[in-house]
């Protein structure tokens, strides 16, 4: 099944980007591991509510990819490790050119920030560093990159724009297509700032506004404040919370999530990804289970670490935040899960005699129509008609949403 969109992970060295990527792609034993596509790409798992619960068939939901447990589904989503982020990337410093070239393929970004303040701008150990600086200079690097490319040839762009009597959307798309843009994204960019001024009259300040609005549309960014269990994290979180849109910020501890999943796989604890609860053998015995759930007994070191993790992360923040990072990226993109089936009555996807339902799930962006979904799945194959739940025909121009045209 198609696996776009692509979520890019960015972050300076030692911010915890690799740990975050590992925690997002370290699928549980229910899923059976994760797939590395190439050294920079991997498959993560987005947690969603599955349509099987809505239609009361959770006991027969058997995804081809990912997993579904009691109506909670893990859907594969492609992740890109965007390496080489250092100040001056737009000038080619570090792996700057490769960083920016990789960046343009992403539909959304997860910026992993070391909120402990124990690594400087280049990822070297320090104490008391202000991590809000990292957030500002990531954006400044992207702005400088796109603005620089545009202004290098702004004079000729304007002359051609006038000569061919193009619209602002047409001219900008000609320049922004290299960043993976579409005309729709460019149109939304101009709508975002309500720009009516003719392109040939734009000042440098107007160009700056357009570039910033384009970045907001093309690269919606989740700010993943990592290492929240560090003693210095609280003051930095408080400062960043005053500076950033709270809808774009997620608090997380990737190392904690990796540790909990490892112990759960080894049979020492009972832990569900994204949960605030961890049960040890001793906890279950205290709750009346004489066998302790069949769990192994923890040594003192790991027992103390579990208790500290509960106090510093799980009980304070409600979870390690890792699952929420990917969910927030999906939210910013307006992703909708769509469930293509062979029969809209039985919800089967395979052979007619198969009892398994909702085998496939595709993530589509906001504004996607039923016809767009059909083309995404079927490619160029002709489509006679599309049916919704109960066998009713659905017009191809109908939009899809959760609970609306999402099973067809």
UniProtKB/TrEMBL annotation:
Q: Which GO terms describe its cellular component?
A: cytoplasm
PANTHER family, alphabetized: OBG GTPASE FAMILY, OBG-TYPE G DOMAIN-CONTAINING PROTEIN
User: Which UniProt keywords are listed?
Assistant: GTP-binding, Hydrolase, Nucleotide-binding
User: GO molecular-function annotation terms?
Assistant: ATP hydrolysis activity; GTP binding
Q: Name one Pfam family in it.
A: YGR210-like_G4
Name of the protein this chain belongs to? P-loop containing nucleoside triphosphate hydrolase protein
User: Locate the OBG-type G domain: which residues?
Assistant: 5-272
Q: Which species expresses this protein natively? A: Schizothecium vesticola
Classify the source by domain of life.
Answer: Eukaryota
């Amino acid at each position: 099944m198609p696996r776009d969109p692509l979520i890019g992970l960015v972050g300076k060295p030692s911010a915890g980007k690799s740990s975050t990527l590992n925690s997002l792609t370290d699928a549980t034993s229910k899923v059976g591991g994760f797939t590395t596509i190439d050294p920079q790409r991997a498959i993560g798992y987005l947690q969603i509510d599955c349509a099987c619960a809505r239609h009361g068939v959770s006991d027969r939901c058997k995804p081809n990819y990912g997993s579904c447990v009691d109506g909670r589904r893990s859907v594969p989503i492609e992740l890109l490790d965007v390496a080489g982020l250092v100040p001056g990337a737009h000038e080619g410093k570090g792996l700057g050119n490769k960083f920016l070239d990789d960046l343009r393929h992403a539909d959304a970004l997860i910026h992993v920030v070391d909120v402990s303040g124990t690594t400087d701008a280049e990822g070297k150990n320090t104490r008391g560093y202000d991590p809000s600086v990292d957030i500002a200079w990531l954006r400044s690097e992207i702005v400088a990159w796109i603005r620089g490319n545009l202004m290098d040839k702004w004079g000729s762009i304007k002359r051609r724009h006038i000569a061919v009597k193009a619209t602002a959307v047409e001219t900008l798309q000609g320049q922004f297509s290299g960043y993976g843009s579409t005309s729709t994204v460019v149109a939304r960019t101009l709508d975002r700032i309500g720009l009516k001024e003719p392109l040939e009259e734009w000042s440098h300040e107007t160009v700056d506004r357009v570039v910033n609005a384009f970045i907001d549309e093309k690269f919606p960014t989740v700010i993943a404040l990592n290492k929240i269990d560090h003693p210095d994290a609280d003051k930095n979180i408080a400062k960043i919370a005053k500076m950033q849109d709270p809808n774009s910020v997620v608090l997380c501890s990737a190392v904690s999530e990796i540790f909990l999943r490892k112990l759960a796989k080894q049979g020492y604890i009972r832990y569900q990804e994204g949960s605030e609860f961890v049960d040890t053998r001793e906890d279950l015995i205290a709750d009346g289970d004489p066998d302790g759930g069949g769990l192994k007994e923890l040594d003192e070191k790991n027992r103390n670490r579990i208790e500290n993790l509960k106090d510093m992360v799980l009980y304070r923040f409600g979870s390690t935040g890792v699952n929420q990072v990917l969910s927030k990226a999906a939210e910013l993109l307006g992703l909708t899960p769509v469930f293509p089936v062979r029969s809209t009555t039985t919800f089967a996807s395979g052979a007619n005699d198969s009892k398994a339902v909702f085998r496939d799930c595709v993530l589509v962006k906001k504004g996607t129509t039923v016809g767009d979904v059909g083309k995404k799945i079927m490619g160029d194959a002709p489509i006679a008609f599309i049916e919704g739940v109960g066998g009713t025909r659905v017009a191809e121009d109908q939009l899809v949403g959760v609970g609306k045209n999402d099973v067809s």
